[in-house]
């Protein structure tokens, strides 16, 4: 996360590449400044996040859902879906995605595994939870 706090548009290279992959059409310097501020805000805000373990079939925990939340509400972690994910980095990416819904009130325009993900407009990228979660994942992996 330190890379995001101190990033600019050109260094380090993994930050630059992740910015291009997840926010390709936007001014990198302005975006880097915005992301640096936003990551500090998210780190501060997420420290008090509460989690509820919710069984599949309750609330929005359906077959392919790993976690969910609404703005300013607790994050629901879907059991067993979330806990069946073997890769800790992927579980972290999912929580970061949910934090952006909870604290930044972002939307789900597209997910990183979708063919349409790279076609999002700049505005939609800036309010898409998976754009931020995938950016953090790409930089930290």
Model description:
The protein is mainly α. It has one domain (2-140): Collagenase (Catalytic Domain), CATH 3.40.390.10. It contains 6 helices and 3 strands. The protein has helices at residues 2-5, 13-22, 28-46, 88-104, 122-126, 129-140; strands at 51-55, 67-68, 75-79. It has a 3-stranded mixed sheet. A hairpin with a 6-residue loop joins β2 and β3. It is globular, with a radius of gyration of 15 Å. The relative contact order is 0.17. The model has no long low-confidence stretch (mean pLDDT 85).
Strands side by side in the biggest sheet: 1-3-2
Tell me the CATH superfamily. Answer: Collagenase (Catalytic Domain)
**Which whole number gives the mean pLDDT?**
85
Number-wise, the strands total 3
The overall number of domains is 1
The Cα radius of gyration reads 15 Å
Which characteristics define this entry?
141 residues, mainly alpha, Collagenase (Catalytic Domain), three-stranded mixed sheet, 3 strands, 48% helix, 9% strand, globular
Task: Report a brief summary of the structure.
The chain has helices spanning 2-5, 13-22, 28-46, 88-104, 122-126, 129-140, and strands at residues 51-55, 67-68, 75-79. By secondary structure, it is mainly alpha-helical.
Give the SSE layout.
Elements: H1 2-5, H2 13-22, H3 28-46, E1 51-55, E2 67-68, E3 75-79, H4 88-104, H5 122-126, H6 129-140
Parallel strand pairs: 1-3
Antiparallel strand pairs: 2-3
């Amino acid at each position: 996360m330190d890379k995001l706090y101190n990033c600019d548009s050109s260094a380090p290279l993994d930050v630059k590449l992740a910015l291009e992959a997840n926010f390709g059409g936007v001014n990198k310097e302005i975006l880097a400044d915005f992301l640096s501020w936003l990551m500090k805000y998210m780190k501060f805000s997420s420290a008090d996040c509460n989690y509820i373990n919710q069984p599949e079939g309750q609330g929005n925990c359906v077959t392919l859902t790993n976690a969910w939340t609404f703005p300013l509400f607790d994050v629901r972690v879907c059991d067993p879906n979330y806990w069946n994910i073997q890769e800790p980095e992927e579980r972290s990416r999912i929580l970061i995605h949910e934090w952006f819904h909870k604290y930044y009130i972002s939307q789900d325009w597209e997910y990183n595994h979708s063919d349409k993900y790279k076609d999002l407009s700049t505005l939609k990228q800036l309010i898409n939870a998976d754009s931020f979660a995938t950016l953090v994942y790409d930089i930290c992996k």
